[in-house]
Amino acid sequence: MFSRTDIKITLHGERHLGAVIGSDTFREEYVSNKVSGWVKDVEELSEIAKEDPQLAYTAYTKGLAHRWTFFQRTIKNISNLFIPLEEAIRNNFIPALLGRGISDEQRKLIALPLRYGGLAIQNPVITSDKEFQASDTITNEIQQLIYDQDTEIEKFDRSKMNTEKQSIRAIYQRNKAEVRI
């Protein structure tokens, strides 16, 4: 039926708008490959951190760490795939920055935002499910309009979305304050 078109039919999955859709196996393979690349990036930054920790820290927080946030927000149930990345961050990058290893409690403190005395180097295993849930909650109304194939965009209530964002921010702040205490 589609042999004379550019339409590609697949049973496994495909990259879609930078994320991935398809079977669990395809999704896990795709994300695992991405994580492997990010692990290599973290290892390279770890080497830089030994000589220039401020430069490596800035590159990590302003650039590298944002690469996986999109995946976390758009692909469900992938937190376990981030274990190798967290291991590289915890065992290579943070020790290179600080010049020593860290305990489990110190890792939690380092994940805190700067305003709470942390370094804002979050654990991607922990943030993955939270990021997806927050994104899903915030976009729920627009998702439903798309699912219903409703073309009346006027039905979209931006203030409701902003209320959801504020609610999620408040929950994040409460959780971070609890870790700090």
Give a structural overview.
A hairpin with a 2-residue loop joins strand 1 and strand 2. The protein has a two-stranded antiparallel sheet. It has a domain at 13-138. The protein is globular, with a radius of gyration of 19 Å. Helix content is 66%, strand content 4%. Helix 1 (24-51) runs parallel beside helix 3 and helix 2 packs across helix 5 (124-138). The protein has 181 residues and is mainly alpha-helical.
What's the overall geometry?
globular
- DSSP strand count: 2
Q: Radius of gyration over alpha carbons?
A: 19 Å
User: How much of the residues is beta strand, in percent?
Assistant: under 5%
Structural class: mainly alpha
Topology order in helix (H) and strand (E) letters = EEHHHHHHH
Helix content: 55-70%
Mean pLDDT: 84
Low-confidence stretches: none
N-to-C span: 63 Å
Give the strand order of the largest sheet, numbering strands 1, 2, ... along the chain: 1-2
- The count of helical stretches stands at 7
Strand count, sense and barrel status of the largest sheet are:
2 strands, antiparallel
